[in-house]
Amino acid sequence: LLVSVTLAMALLAVGRGFTSGSGQRQPPCTVTVHPGQSIQEAIDRASEGAVICISADNFPYMEHLTITKSLTLRGAGRDKTFLTGLGAQPIIHIKGNKEIEVVLEDLTESWKPGSEFLPELYGVYIQGQAKVTIRNMEIRRNSHGIVIRDTAQLQLDNVYIHWNTWRGLLATDSAKATIRNSVIANTWYGDGIIVARSARMTIANVTLSNNSRGLGVIDSAYVEIQESRFLNNRG
Question: pLDDT value at position 1?
Fold first, then answer.
């Protein structure tokens, strides 16, 4: 167990990273999914590297998505585009049987209220050789918010992970993750973040608050913590 901690700032504003996006110009949409259309069908038809944009809707898109190719999945904003699960499988399952690059941005992923108490309800499940960027998203009401495993890699920026039952974020096996400008809160029975086996993680400008446990680092895992806060966790 190796943990490196840098305390470069005494105080950080909660949610500081949520005031603005990256400022980078976004690539144009290749495909646009409108209410009543299937996101999975758009993914299946899309070519490698496509940008699939999901329109705003007052009601959630109710689908489970499987992604096995490089693409961007972009909502209209996390207060405008909602994705909700139906059954006991990941809402977004990214399978990198080969090296793929996936971007998820500008939407909210959530199970229906009450369903988060059921086991094995994953918000985003990442495996294999996938390289995934998640930004400007809200991930809530899952039993496990994000799971990353195998040799997959994750870049998380400006994400609010909350109201999950067992884990906000789990990195295991030989996965690598960088978590920036984010809040992980209100994980009821488990860890806001848990890093296990040989996984490696950098946490920068992150607030972990009101979780059962803030951070768990076990086995041969390595975590570097920079300019972050741990508030009101029970362990």
Answer: 53
